[in-house]
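Protein modeling request. Please complete all fields; requests missing the sequence field cannot be processed.
Requester role: graduate student
Desired output: 3D structure, token encoding
Chains: 1
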Amino acid sequence: MSVSLNLNLFLIVFARMAGIFLIAPVFGSRYLPAQLKIGFALVTTAVLTPVVASRVGQVPDPWSAPVRYAVTLVSETGIGLVLGYATLLILMTVQVAGQFIDLQMGFGIVNVVDPLSDAPVPLVGNFKYLLAILVFLAVNGHHFLLEALVASYDLVALGQAVYGGLLVSRITDLFSSMFLVAVKLALPVVGTLFLTDVALGIIARTVPQMNILVLGLSVKIIVGIVVLLLLLPAYVFLLGGLFDRLYPTLWELLHLAGGG
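Delivered output (260 residues):
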């Protein structure tokens, strides 16, 4: 294989890798300097290029077919974005669940900056997000994401990705289902806080001299934190199940992108 062909393939592999490094958890974190992410992407691409070379067919030539080569780069970047976005949805689900809990606990106005989106997120949502990152790393989710990237060349040929209705529909279904999962994750804490509100309402009617507005906020925060601590093992277990569901989802998206 000539040096020119190696360089052309390197850039194409880097394009698919760059899509992951833009939005995927851990890889796309804003806490990581851009130079470090680019360097890691280049090193990973250099390692993957010889592996990918035996799995791909003809590589477009940027000099004889510049338009086709540019389209291939855009298409390859899209595959990386699909893989990264599907993984990111799980963490966004965790943040939405945390926002539901924050509203019930009284933390609705307390926000911190998310390192990935650089936007304000709820306090409990950020805690759950960081915990989900730890679980993601503990189950080697970052390794699987790179493994899925390598396997994607068997399922989606270079420049042959199909961004059709089936793929868009599946991503839309995945996005909508994550809201349902977020409600299920937040339901135990939100339900407990609702019962706490009911109990405080009964106390306010029976003991009108008590300042429920001041007492209620403290009670709800304490109850919410206690329930969160009690449910922490179950929450970690559920996160592991969510990441287990991620694996077949990525394969399904790759099959759809490959026209399957």
